[in-house]
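Project channel, design review

CF: Before we commit to the Comamonas avium constructs, I'd like one complete example in the thread so the newer folks can see what an input/output pair looks like. Taking Glutamate 5-kinase.
RD: sounds good, go ahead.
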Amino acid sequence: MSSRVLQDARRIVVKVGSSLVTNEGRGLDEGAIEEWSRQLAALVHGDDGIRREVIMVSSGAVAEGMKRLGWATRPKEIHELQAAAAVGQMGLVQMYETKLRTYNVGSAQVLLTHADLADRERYLNARSTLLTLLQLGVVPVINENDTVVNDEIKFGDNDTLGALVANLVDADALIILTDQKGLYTADPRSNPHAQFVHEAQAGDVALEAMAGGAGSSIGKGGMLTKILAAKRAAGSGASTVIAWGREHAVLLRLARGESIGTLLVAPTHKNQARKQWMMDHLQLHGAVTIDAGAALKVRDEGKSLLPVGMVAVEGDFSRGDVIAVRDAQGVEIARGLANYSSSEARLLCRHASSEVEQLLGYRGEPEMVHRDNMVVLH
Ligand SMILES: Nc1ncnc2c1ncn2[C@@H]1O[C@H](COP(=O)(O)OP(=O)(O)O)[C@@H](O)[C@H]1O
Ligand SMILES: N[C@@H](CCC(=O)OP(=O)(O)O)C(=O)O
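CF: and here is what came back for Glutamate 5-kinase:
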């Protein structure tokens, strides 16, 4: 069963750490970035007959910036780290862009902060942008927006960012590429008797005791943040693989179902996990009442709610808030994230999606609540 996890994955987040990307701080590893780009392109183009959507979360900005600025030791001052990240990020994305283009794949730079994912509206915006890029066959190259974050508000390590991105886009799998073959029962750098862990359940607390901090001065998180990232990714049903980034054709072989690295299997199914998350975390901010035709689509056919099916709007909510969807009898049949605010929704009631631009002055999503962001209650 385990090999199928990656074989069946259609939307994959790949995270690469600083030590790999910058060759332990020596500078951007052009050969490695080229090799990952070749594999990403093959996955996106579906060279094996299956097209996949891939997001790259890449570290390395600070390490590369330090090199470009001629700094031998990591600065202590946060503004110096931020300056290094800003310098290094240029080189980082330039290289991904060049290499991916060589293999006929477009790329896009996306810089995110914690605040972007904590705020519902920005969360939805980030999600729509990433999903649009994926639909266009473009590979988003993501890093933390180091320039605007300080110690208290940063993800800090990109393992956590990778997991949050996997949650954000409902990825099927998170692949964390690092400088070890995977997880061992102890840090192999300091314990020669450490045993390799081939497979475990994501979220198993026993794994946390095995994992230590970063083995080099370049990487930030170490193995513990990877284990915690796997647990977090499992929250939305994504399984995680931790593997060596220089393993030959690692991404393609994983996609073929080969077992490489450590597989941390998500215990719950993707859709079930997302529904649970919706039910657990979301507070209602308002409601829309829909007509019988729309109720049929939403409840029985699992379709999105379009503005044309809405007949009334209650409450005061913003884009990204959770609203109840009620049928004509007032029975709540679903809950989901609103794509439009309550005042906009009032204008959109009974109108076709093609009229959104004319009514609101901008072209938004065709759906009031997209089915991916909706839980049908019965
Ligand atoms: N149980 C463990 N198994 C494997 N590696 C471990 C373990 N505990 C700690 N490590 C260390 O974690 C390091 C990888 O983390 P890190 O240096 O942050 O890499 P990256 O830059 O790829 O995120 C390894 O080089 C290793 O020394
Ligand atoms: N945003 C930072 C990444 C932080 C970091 O070092 O992460 P990682 O190497 O993945 O543990 C950078 O690009 O330098």
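RD: helpful, thanks. The mean pLDDT is 91.
CF: The pocket of VHF (ligand 2) is lined by residues 17-18, 59-63, 85, 143-144, 146, 157-159, 219-221 (CB under 6 Å).
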